[in-house]
Amino acid sequence: MKRKYAARSSWKRIIERNYRELYMETESFIGYVTRLDMIQVTHSLHVRYSEQVIQLVGDGYSWLQQFPSGKKHVVTTMFDEHGKIVQTYVDICLRHGRDANGIYWDDLFLDLVLLPSGECLILDADELEAALRAGEIKRTQYDGAWREIDRLREQMRTSDVVPGTLAYAHHALLSDA
């Protein structure tokens, strides 16, 4: 299991950045929200899903992270330089919170990606399996990761909420304007 931090201060690819965070308690969300604006980067980052290539990092891109209180996941919504969502990435985690280094999550390897097309992908199941075999995680943590994926997929399937609505609102809230 690896501890990751929202500020991504170790990322050398970001030359100029702006990072903000906020703790919120509203009717629709309780938890931390962070925004990382990548003003200038050394080079872009692209990922391939089947036949589709998506840019995730570039000059003017921003990443919004939502850390919902009491949940076993962290949602990263990635925006292009025009403020359009390019993907939503959900890290399944053991826990998230704040320590002396900032807002963190303890990653449980398994991830869920929601593309603007509505396509939903499960990633890194092989990494979760390998971590279990290597003794890096316990069987209860492995089972919990799959339960969280199932819960999130069911929530997406049955929800009346348009994906991204809360992300756009939080993104605007943490903007410089």
Structure in words:
The protein has one domain (2-173): Beta Barrel (FomD barrel-like fold), CATH 2.40.380. 21% of the residues lie in helices and 49% in strands. It has three helices and ten strands; from the N terminus they run E-E-E-E-E-E-E-E-E-E-H-H-H. The chain has helices at residues 125-133, 139-158, 165-173; strands at 2-5, 14-25, 30-41, 45-49, 52-57, 61-68, 73-79, 85-99, 102-114, 120-123. The longest helix has 20 residues, at 139-158.
Note poorly predicted spans.
none
Helix tally?
A: 3
Radius of gyration: 16 Å
User: Can you tell me the CATH topology?
Assistant: FomD barrel-like fold
Architecture, CATH level 2?
A: Beta Barrel
Main sheet overview: 8 strands, antiparallel
In the CATH hierarchy, what is the class? Mainly Beta
Whole-number total of structural domains? 1
Count every beta strand, where a strand is a DSSP E run of 2 or more residues.
Answer: 10
Secondary structure class reads alpha+beta
- Share in β-strands: over 45%
- Report, as a whole number of angstroms, the end-to-end distance: 37 Å
- Approximately how much helix is present in the residues? 10-25%
Organism: Exiguobacterium undae
InterPro entries: DUF402, FomD-like_sf
Protein name: DUF402 domain-containing protein
Pfam families: DUF402
Any descriptors?
177 residues; alpha+beta; FomD barrel-like fold; eight-stranded antiparallel β-sheet; two-stranded antiparallel ribbon; 3 helices; 21% helix
Give me a quick take on this structure:
Helix content is 21%, strand content 49%.
